[in-house]
Amino acid sequence: RNYYGGNWASFSFSGLLSWIKENQQKTDTSDDCEDWRKLILENEEVISLSKKDKTIQHVEDFCFGDQDSAEDVEEAGALPKLPIFGASGAEGVAQESEKECPPMESALPEAESQEPEKATGTKPASAMEGNDTEITSKNESCHSTALGESALELGKTEAAPSEISAQEPKKVTYSQIVREGRRFNIDLVSKLLYSRGLLIDLLIKSNVSRYAEFKNATRILAFREGKVEQVPCSRADVFNSRQLAMVEKRMLMKFLTFCLDYEQHPDEYQDYENSTFAQFLRTRKLTPSLQHFILHSIAMVSETDCSTLEGLQATKKFLQCLGRYGNTPFLFPLYGQGEIPQCFCRMCAVFGGIYCLRHSVQCLVVDKESGRCKAIVDHFGQRISANYFIVEDSYLSESICTNVCYRQISRAVLVTDQSVLNTDSEQQVSILTVPPVDLGKPAVCVIELCSSTMTCMKDTYLVHLTCPSTKTAREDLEPVVQKLFNLNTEKETENEELEKPRVLWAVYFNMRDSSGVDKNLYDGLPSNVYVCSGPDSALGNDCAVKQAETIFQEMFPTEEFCPPPPNPEDIIYDEDEIAPEESGFSNSPETKPEPSTEESSSGGSTAVKKEDNEE
C-alpha cells in the first residue's frame, strides 16, 4: 500500500475517493515476473500470499450536496501545511513521498514533540472551544514506578467569544468539500480511547504519547422516543440535569455507586447471573428512561445478548474512566485514529526500524525439514531472511484460511452540515448508541466529530456509524441514518426533516473482523509465522493491544513489552550502527516543517508536555 496503517488508516477526502475507487474495482495484481522462483532451493517450498485485499466489500458512496461543477475542482494546494501524515492516501503524502524519498524512507510524524503554544486570539474560532487538557508523562526524579506518572493538567486558555450559532447552517457544496479535502482526516475504523484503557496506559508507559494530541469526547448522547438527548454521567451532570426528576437522580446515583464496587455485594446480583443485564435492570426499581440510559449509553451493551455480569463490568469500566481527562471516559486523537499506528511507527523508526511503503511480498519461504519459515521474497525479487514473520490476516491466501469463519463490520461515514444535537458550542465530540431498529439487529454506535478534531472542514461534521454486520453495510445502517439525518436533496421537505442535520456525502462499506481467530485454524502456517488481525467492532482498542503483547511475548518471552525508551543522551551507539547513516542511507523519515501557531494550539486538545531533560 502507499499509506500507513492498513485498515486502521485515515485519509484526506481525495485520498478516500481513491481508496473507494480502488475497492470498487478490485483489480487483481498480476505476477508478471517469475524470476523470483529461481531463488527457491530444492529443500524449500513457498507459501504464496494473496495479492488481492478481500477485507473490504460492498463499497457504496453517495453525494447529497450540490455538485456544482465539482469535476473541475481540485484540493487546494495553498492551504497551510497540516501534519496529515498518513491521512492523505494516493493523492497526498504517497505522491509526495514517491517524488521526494526512496521507498525505504518513511514520512512519519515529527521526531520532536512540539510543546503546544498558549491559545491566543490568532487561533481559528473552530479550535477555541473547550479546555486545554494535557497528558503529562513524567520521568520523576525519584523513579517511583517504571511506568512513569501520568498527570492531568487543565490549562486555562484565553478563549475568544464563541460564535453564535446561526438559525440555519451555512450551505456547504460538494465542490467546497473537494477543495478543502486536506482538512479531512477520515478513519476507516471508528474508535475512541478509554481514559483508563490499555492503549492509553501503553502510550504513556512507552512514551509514544509524545507524538500525539487528543481531544476529550464532550458528550454522551442517547436516542429515545425518536429524539436525541444528552446523558448525565458524572455526579455533577446528574444533579444539574433538567431531564431527570429528583427521584430519578437519586435512583441513578444509587445504582452507579453500587456498580463501582458490585463485587463487594454479590448478594445483590448473584440471583441474576444467568439473566440478561436488561432483565437485571428491571429489578432495580429504575424508571424506563434510566434503564435506557444505563443500557445503551453507559454500559453500551446489547439488550438481548449481554449477561448481568458483563453489563456490570462494562458499567464499572465506564465509571472508572470518568474524570481522568474530562467529564466523559473517552479521548479522540487529533487528525484521526490513523495517527496511532504512525506514532508507534515513529518510535520504531527512532530506534532503527524501517517501514516500507509500496513494497509488496510475493511469498514466504519454508524449510521442508524444519517446517519453519526462513525468508520472504519481495516484488523486486529480493530474498530477505529473518527469524520471525508477522503477517496481517488479509495477506493470507484462501487455501490457508479454509477453516476460518470471519465476522464482518458494517461501516458508514457521513459529512453533515450540523450536529445531531445543537447546543451553544459547535465544537462537540459526541458518542451516541442507537438501539436496534428491529429484533435481532445490533445496536449502532455513532461518533460525531467537529472541525476542531482536525478531521473535517469548518461548518461540517464527520459522523461515523459502526455495528456488527447482519447484511451489507448500507442495509444495516441506512435505517439509522434516515432516523437521525435528512437525506432529501430536494428543496421542499417536511418541517421534521428540516430540523435534522443534512447529509452532504456518505460512504458505506463492510470490513472484515478477523479478531478472535485461533492461529491453529490457519492451515499449514509455520510455527514462527504470527498472524495479526485487522480492527474489531468494539469501541475501544483493548483487543489490538492484547494481541500485540501476546505475539511479542511468544517471540521474546524474557523481554518487556514496549518498555519506556531511554533518554536520547543516554544512548551509546556502536560504530557499526553509525556506519549506515554515514553512507547516506537513513532509516529516519524526513523532518517535517514545524506547525504554525494555528496548527500547534488547537483548542480542547490533550497534548504531550515535554520534560526539560528530553530532546
Written account of the structure:
This protein has about 625 residues and is an alpha+beta fold. It is about 25% helix and about 20% strand. The strands form five sheets. The protein has an eight-stranded mixed β-sheet with strand order 3-20-16-19-18-17-9-10, sandwiched between helices. A six-stranded mixed β-sheet has the order 5-4-22-8-11-7, covered by helices on one side. A four-stranded antiparallel β-sheet has the order 2-12-13-14, with no helix packed on it. The radius of gyration is 25 Å and the shape is globular.
Features:
single chain, six-stranded mixed beta sheet, alpha+beta, eight-stranded mixed beta sheet, 19% strand, 615 residues, globular
Summarize the structure.
The chain is of the alpha+beta class and 615 residues long. It has 15 helices and 22 strands.
Number of helices: 15
Strand content: 15-25%
Global geometry: globular
Helix content: 10-25%
Largest sheet: 8 strands, mixed
Rg over CA atoms, rounded to whole Å, is: 25 Å
Largest sheet strand order: 3-20-16-19-18-17-9-10
Spans of at least 5 consecutive residues whose pLDDT stays below 50 are 78-166, 579-615
Q: How many extended strands?
A: 22
Mean pLDDT: 78
Helix-and-strand structural type: alpha+beta
What is the CA-CA span between the terminal residues?
Answer: 32 Å
Region (Disordered): 90-141, 560-615
Family: Belongs to the Rab GDI family.
Biased composition (Acidic residues): 571-580
InterPro entries: FAD/NAD-bd_sf (IPR036188), GDP_dissociation_inhibitor (IPR018203), Rab_escort (IPR001738), RAE1_2_domI_C (IPR054420)
